[in-house]
What we know:
47% of the residues lie in helices and 20% in strands. By secondary structure, the protein is α+β, with helices and mostly antiparallel strands. The strands form three sheets. It has a four-stranded antiparallel sheet. Strands 2-7-4-5 form a four-stranded antiparallel sheet.
Amino acid sequence: MARILGYLERHSLFHDLPRNDLADLVLDCRLRTPFKGDRVFEAGQPAESFYLLVTGEVKLSSATPSGRECVVEVIRAGETFALVPCLDEGDYPVSATALTDCAMVRVPRVAFSRLLHRHPQVGSRATREVASRMRRFRTRLEEISTRTVPARSASHLLRLAEEQKGHISPGVEVNLGGTREVVAAAIGTVREVFVRTIRGFEKKGLVSIQGRRINLLDPEGLHEVAADRGRRSGPGGHMVRAALRERALEALSLH
Length: 255
């Protein structure tokens, strides 16, 4: 219980709230520790709770009509997910799967609603969080529609450096996190094209690759690649783009 209270107190949704009120919420929360590959919830299940991811990574995904998995987003430590469907008493629009061994706090809707009545400012914080996630998702859709696979791949690596290290400088190392299939789907292509692209970066001296760890040797060169808005390329990209457009409203509603 004390661990859950500590996790909540450090998150922006709950920061500076009276400890007694948070303690009441914690009584209904649960700490879940799914292993890599475990399902957190399935699309279509009633959204009775939302989650705060403490450690690890979780992918949110949906199936296209052809059965191909469409990765909507990768959730990282410190982020919440399934907040909107939880509050509007709907169903989960996508499935959530642990990409790594994880720890997360399950926050039930009923208990969170009680907290909202006591502290309306939490609702404003939740709105800002959802708006930020929507902007990020819109940016991703725009990138898939207007930029080449190399440009999106370079942009993704630079964004990871900023998120993981807080700076972008020669020699900074980033962790791709999920499998290359997941990363490729997240930037709107397929595994083979993504692998070929980053291998091309390596041959040009832009990066060095050690498994899922990528060393950014020439961030300036990656910035130049990321700025390219030439013809979109890469097989499979059109399929992922179509799936993303089809699922966009569902995906945004998940946050």
